[in-house]
Amino acid sequence: MSEILVGYARVSTDEQDLTAQQDALRGLGIEPTRIYVDHGLTGSNTNRPGLREALAACRAGDTFIVTKLDRLARSVRDAHQIADDLAARGVKLSIGGSVHDPTDPMGKLLFNVLAMVAEFEGDLIRARTREGMKVAKAKGRLRGKKPKLSATQEAHLVELHANGEHTMSEIAELFSVGRSTVYRALERSRIKQESRRTPDHPPHQDKTGA
Hints:
Blueprint: E1 5-11, H1 19-27, E2 35-39, H2 49-57, E3 63-66, H3 69-72, H4 76-88, E4 92-95, E5 98-100, H5 105-138, H6 151-163, H7 168-174, H8 179-197
Helix pairs in contact: 4-5, 6-8, 7-8
């Protein structure tokens, strides 16, 4: 049986494009039907359907190809685990066209360096994301969705509903919101009214029995 080339490409977000990786893999001689992809999944996520399919498609004597090691894994442990599994099955691992030889000391050193760089970059991205979220939160940009109705609009909505002259659909259309928004506004008003009617302290009870 002739050797089969199996390619794998990955991007971390839905906004990123796989075209460059797919073109590079085709340039290495891989048929388009043999290229497996994961879109919007990070390299630290080992539960990737495209990666599972790509690894399952490999047989002894085949070559598994990625454009860069960080497309395959973002941790030293995961990179070694995948590489060791491929080697145990008799499948060669190619990184950007260079076949990794696990028995070559220089090859092992280069692989370890690439894996550590991939892990470092992943840690750096996560750290920057956390820092960005802290800054955004401090500036008040992470306070959830802006209410669809202002306090004045919500009060007007409740008043219209209480008058009984409009249906739920008509009120929703009047304020350009969905019916669910109307229901939530009415529920909030009901809860407020009930809290006003409930005394803060229970009435005093005369324990003398008089």
